Amino acid sequence: MNNHVTVLEIDANAVLHNLDYFKQKLQPETKTLVVVKAFGYGSESVEIAKIVQDKVDYFAVAYSNEGIVLREAGIKTPILVLHPQIQNLKDIVKHRLEPNLYNFKIFDAFIKLADEAPLMNYPVHIKFNTGLNRLGFWHTDVPNIISTLKSSNNIVVKSIFSHLAASEDFNEQEFTVGQINNFAYIVKQIYEHLGYEPMIHILNTSGIINYPQAQFDMVRLGIGLYGFGNHPDVTAQLKNTHSLKSIISQIHLIQPGETVGYNRAFVASSPTRSATIPIGHADGISRRLGNKEGFVIINNQPAPIIGNVCMDMIMVDVTKIECKEGDEVIIFNHQQHIEYIAHKCETIPYETITAISQRVKRLVKS
Ligand SMILES: *Cc1c(COP(=O)(O)O)cnc(C)c1O
Question: Where does the chain bind substrate (predicted)?
């Protein structure tokens, strides 16, 4: 039982609102895959899956363990494992997860396993690299893939997909359109020679916004579900899903010349009230937010973090804020605040929300 008072609230209605927002951008026949990797972008993958399962066609996770957690919680929706390893293939089959086969090493290993079992039409997905240069076959691998596929009827290709390298960046429009066109060409070759037509998909959140012509059969919605559109106009139409809250553990009144925290980094120049909050860098609050770079909200007012962020605590300046021990503290509850934190940490909201550690209790609000 996790009784920690620092809580990440997940807003189920906001999740549903965001899903609707993106679904309205899709052709009626386009399917939706929701990405719940990394604990549902730092929230809680099982809860997110339960909130949206009746409205989506697929889930995706990065690693097989993440898919097993969903299956063990009773999620029945198809689950694509984006980054399986050969060592995981048996577990993947055991839990009816669907592997992405991205090179011949894992492709051959899976066919061997499927033929030995035999598995009979086991669903798999094939990924092509069109410029991200992270995971995926090359277009020149198509003939080999086709002939290997034809040698076994123990696997069936459910989808062929690729991933855009810069879908949020207008300066890279030409490159992105090139990726989409190359992908379409690969798909055409496969359709001509395979004998059936797997689903195809390439768009992530920013892709849905910026390249609606490339929806193909399905889109992969990640960060957008969690309230970020990678563009201020889009984010403004989405609702915040992650609210991180805590309480004031203790308040100290300190005198000029006295200091707060490790290395005595904050030095009071006038009488100062300092509030201690039970959340620290081990919970995902970057040390870069110390020394007044970051702030929290107490009784609707911003309270700057003073001194260095500790592992388990931060101290904030509440000299001008009416508050007492036990009062609620909002670490963040709005996308703009999360973006501010990300900016201060020289990163992006993806990292800020996925950094919230598992020590923080998750609570779904519906
Ligand atoms: C994480 C991921 C996504 C989701 O991307 P967002 O930008 O969060 O929408 C889609 N596809 C793949 C392959 C991914 O790894």
Answer: 134, 311
Ligand 1: residue whose CA is nearest its atom 4: 222
Ligand 1 atom closest to 223 (CA):
8
Q: Does any ligand 1 atom lie closer than 6 A to the CB of residue 202?
A: no
Q: What is the pLDDT of residues 313-359, one digit of tens each?
A: 999 999 999 999 999 999 999 999 999 999 999 999 999 999 999 99
2 is a domain residue: no
Question: Could you list the active site residues?
Answer: 37, 262
Backbone angles phi, psi at 328, to 5 degrees: -70, 145
The chain-wide mean pLDDT, for the chain, equals 97
What pLDDT is stored for residue 1 in this prediction? 61
pLDDT digits (tens, 9 = 90+) for 164-199: 999 999 999 999 999 999 999 999 999 999 999 999
Q: Which residues of 87-99 are buried (b: 16+ CB within 10 A; e: fewer)?
A: ebbeebbebebbb
- In the reported structure, the alpha carbon of residue 5 is separated from the centroid of ligand 1 by a whole-number distance in angstroms of 32
Answer yes or no: do 223 and 247 share one domain: no
User: What length is written for the chain?
Assistant: 366
From 34, 35, 210, give the residue whose CB has the most ligand 1 atoms within 8 Å, as the site to mutate.
35
- Please tell me the total count of domains within the chain: 2
CATH number for the domain spanning 315: value is 2.40.37.10
At what angle are helices 45-52 and 12-23 packed, to 10 degrees? 60
- The boundaries of the domain holding residue 58 are 12-235
Q: Is the CB of 205 under 6 A from ligand 1?
A: yes
Which H or E run includes 60? strand 58-61
Considering the domain architecture, whether residues 45 and 93 belong to the same structural domain is answered as yes
Which of 235, 251, 270 delimits the end of a domain? Answer: 235
In the chain, the amino acid numbered 35 is: V
